[in-house]
From TrEMBL:
Protein name per the record: DUF4262 domain-containing protein
Top-rank lineage group of the source organism: Bacteria
Amino acid sequence: MCFECENPDRSGYLQRLRDGVAGRGWLVQGVEGSGSYPPWAYTVGLSEYGLPELVVTGLPVPDAAGLLNDLAAHSLHESPPSSGERVPLRGGSLIEVVRLAEPSVHLVFAVALYGPEIRALQLVHADSQGRFPWSPDCRDGRGGQPVLGVRGGA
């Protein structure tokens, strides 16, 4: 965990988030991996537009931030992806969208700003062979990308 996550007085950090969201429309909150926990990242600010926040697990934070920023911009200008949708990315990668079962458990700072009723979608990415985490042979069985919801969940 980071200092801001563990700090009981988050007021200064929350104000910086509010200011950043006001200036840009959304931000990406990254969480570095440690031990057996992979890195993950999520948007903060899409809830302000009535949209679900977006989450990525198992990618290095800079890669996750790039993906989240691209899809957040798309969500604001077009529409957010829907649960169960498969989205091809530049470079040939593929993601599948999964609705988070309990966003309030995972999106600490989005919840702090918008409340526990926020909605969120996970962008689940296929491995280099095009296999998703629910496939037993994904990443040769090594895991590394927790799925935080149920496939095709409404």
